[in-house]
Amino acid sequence: MPDNSLSAPATTLGAQDNSCHVRAVSGLGAKSPAAFLVEYRGKRLLMDLGAGPEPGVRPDLTGLGQIDAICLSHAHGDHVGALDARGDHGNPPVWATAATWGQIDTALVPQEARRLLPLKGSTEVLGTPVMTGRTGHAPGGVWLHLPGAGREGGGFTYMGDWTVESDLFPFDMPPQADFLIDDASYGNRDQSLADQIGALAEAAREGAVLCVPAAGRGPEMALRLAALGLRPLPCPVIRREIEALATDDSGIIDAAPRAAMAALLKDGQLAGGAPTPQDIVITTDANAESGLAADLLARREEGFRFIFTGYVPPGTPAERLVAAKQALWCGWNVHPCLGDMLWLQREIKPRWVMPAFVKPASASKLAEASHATLLWEPGFRF
Ligand SMILES: [Zn+2]
């Protein structure tokens, strides 16, 4: 039974008024950090509090005021990187899955402020019912659903980042909801991961440095390239991620891909040792600013060829190299493409969708085909 001492006033209020006010503090209209405020049943819940992905970009929290709770979708920097500002907003407790907490430093959120979300299931956040499910995007990543939110009780869902194209991380279908904050990062892109993998394998065959973020696409890239007969060389960070996934029993990965991770390690499908320009190196970080990627970038004259596969933020080595045609860019979907966004709309039948993390001009096809009303203004009450 929940402790009713804190939630009693809100529950009383909620019985009379389920209206829900959503405000995109950041993350709407551009590839900007995630921070979405939901005011519901007398509580102020913040969905994510990120920084980046461009270096130095932080959300403008002016006028945000006191927050009652923060809920995290996953541990990527553009979703958690501004948690150091928590103290300016009442030092609220923070909810996340155990796997997400495992990726966040206690210097950013101390143990005493940490609360647990299930990977898939129901819980309460300060008396507010919250449902979660896995998003296919990152270890421990979840969507958040507030059942019954809204004047007509149709519900609210925040997707965080998601994809249904991963062979590694499962995706759980969210319930139907009137209001959806969707991950529209790719806007009009409608190329499948299957097609992208073939192109990447061809480009990398003679040797490449494939730059990836930590806790992201690295292990799956190793798996898919090995399946094509290539022998990728993971950097120590990615190798540890593969080892952790091969033995994970927390629910972030299902049995079949877990066995595939174990087979990668056991069957000699991965290369080891010091990387040479002929190796297919999978390494952090995504923009060659740190890690083995930065070390190999400093040795580029030896013949290391760089390939970037994600969003290339301005002001990074990745952006400079790609712009100068000194590195390749090959897409690797970790967000939904256009067809998948429309599929999700058909499944959960929202009336209103806030398309997050994209410029309106890059989402013109989504706007044409959307079954729901797209919202580009930051505030909305339903
Ligand atoms: Zn992410």
Task: Describe the structure concisely.
The chain contains eleven helices and 19 strands. It is of the alpha/beta class and 382 residues long. Helix 6 packs across helix 7 (255-266).
Structure description:
- With 382 residues, this protein is α/β, with parallel strands linked by helices.
- It has 2 domains: 4-188 and 335-381, Metallo-beta-lactamase, Chain A (4-Layer Sandwich), CATH 3.60.15; 193-329, Rossmann fold.
- 26% of the residues lie in helices and 21% in strands.
- The protein contains 11 helices and 19 strands.
- A 7-stranded mixed beta sheet has the order 6-5-4-3-2-1-19.
- The longest helix is centred in the first third of the chain and has 13 residues, at 4-16.
- Bound molecules: zinc ion.
- Zinc ion binds at residues 74, 76, 137-138, 161.
